[in-house]
Specification:
TIM Barrel, disordered C terminus, Glucose Oxidase, domain 1, nine-stranded mixed beta sheet, eight-stranded parallel β-barrel, 414 residues
Length: 414
């Protein structure tokens, strides 16, 4: 070994314990490179998905773009901001020691097996959290166990990033721009639907662009500057204020009906993001003017929604998705994107597990399907300590490892 070693903190892992690549500091896509940036942001989408790994100077393990990397199996290593300037040329990432070496180093290698790996049967009716079409192909190429995945969950903003759409710019335009945006979203959903296996469906999480993320993918529309975007105007509260989004959503549903006919309602479902209670759910359904037959699920990711789970089910939620990443930060007052409080951001904290248990039990009592998001490293812990939900949600790369472990014991979590 030679060269300087920089110690960091691994935010997301991968399938290799050691990997090499050339640093890319341009912010532009460079296939197979090590992307080096101060922080991950939506505007870096193309550069991130082209990278072999990412090195950044700030951020937490469950930020939105970190979750994108987790889904793709792209390792993310955080180092001190002062060390970023030294990352040029060829570098080697050591995932097990959470460090990076400048210059050449030992050959890359696959991770070894891990004991106690959960089995595909433990997942229930599994849900894959995806960013684009490639993720569906990745899951459905896992052999017979792919049939355990009955839905693919995609955020509308990730769909926009993959398709090169700028939603706020479109919504700030005239009726023609709004209709075009709706058709473009529907076209993308139809392309995803074509890759589904029999019995699978898509769940679209309605647009949830926080102001800080929106600023990175908006060119024309004004974006308000908020002191705390995580707790700001996004999710259900933003959707309730937007009439143009309602029009765009109707354009989506109309185009889906034209393209998919009677299969539209079976193949594509909708879910409400960042919801607090049954009143918001009821108001939003009315505001969006959804036809009676269109199912609408609720995403439970705030403590208020945990306590309102029974009422949300009674208000007509077709199913519940429990978003533990946001739930952790709100229960523990620890920003998921702030590495300075990473020690307080605990996905297995008793208060968090109690909240998850409440939601699962409330949904089961109401007869409403419920799914719980789990990081790969937490799945076994959740399986042991929580009542069984109808299924677990996982990012693509980690879900793939569970599915393949069912036929190949040497496959382990990265």
């Amino acid at each position: 070994m030679n060269g300087r070693r920089i110690q960091g903190s691994l935010l997301t892992g991968g399938t290799q314990s050691v990997l090499r690549g050339t640093c890319n500091r341009t912010r532009r896509p460079l296939a197979g490179s090590i992307l080096v940036v101060p922080s991950l942001e939506a505007g870096l989408y193309d550069a991130i998905v082209a990278a072999r790994a990412v090195v950044c100077g700030m951020g937490g393990a469950t930020g939105h773009m970190q979750s994108l990397c987790r889904g793709r199996g792209i390792p993310v290593l955080r180092v001190d901001q002062a060390d970023l300037a030294d990352l040029v040329g060829e570098v080697t990432l050591h995932l097990e020691s959470e460090s990076i070496v400048i210059g050449s180093d030992a050959a890359a290698g696959e991770r070894g097996p891990s004991a106690g790996q959960p089995s595909p049967a433990d997942l229930g009716s599994a849900c894959a959290v995806i960013a684009d079409l490639q993720d569906i192909h990745t899951v459905n190429s896992c052999g017979p166990n792919a049939q355990r995945v009955d839905c693919f969950f995609i955020r509308e903003e990730f769909l926009c990033l993959a398709a090169g759409l700028r939603p706020l710019d479109a919504l700030a335009g005239g009726p023609a721009d709004i209709a075009a945006y709706g058709r473009a979203v529907a076209d993308r959903l139809c392309t995803l639907a074509q890759a589904l296996l029999p019995g699978q469906r898509l769940v679209l999480r309605l647009l949830d662009l926080r102001s800080d993320h929106a600023a990175g993918v908006t060119e024309l529309a004004p974006v308000a500057v908020e002191p705390n975007p995580e707790l700001g105007l996004h999710g259900a509260r933003w959707l309730l204020r937007s009439t143009t989004y309602r029009d765009a959503l109707h354009a989506v549903l109309g185009a889906l009906q034209e393209r998919l006919a009677d299969d539209a309602g079976r193949l594509v479902h909708l879910s409400v993001p960042f919801l607090n209670d049954e009143e918001e759910f009821t108001r939003l359904r009315a505001h969006l003017e959804l036809p009676v037959g269109v199912p609408l699920a609720a995403f439970i990711e705030t403590p208020a929604a945990v306590h309102a789970a029974t009422a949300i089910c009674a208000a007509g939620a077709s199913e519940l998705f429990l978003g533990t990443k946001d739930l952790v930060q709100f229960y523990l007052a620890a920003d998921r994107s702030n590495h300075l409080v990473a020690g307080s951001y605990r996905t297995r904290h008793p208060a968090v597990l109690d909240g998850v248990q409440r939601v699962v039990e409330s949904a089961r009592a109401a007869g409403t399907p419920v799914r719980v998001f789990a990081l790969g490293e937490d799945l076994a812990h959740y399986l042991e300590r929580l009542p069984a939900p109808d299924g677990y949600m996982m990012c693509t790369a980690e879900l793939r490892q569970v599915l393949l472990a069912g036929r190949n014991p040497s496959v382990a979590f990265g």
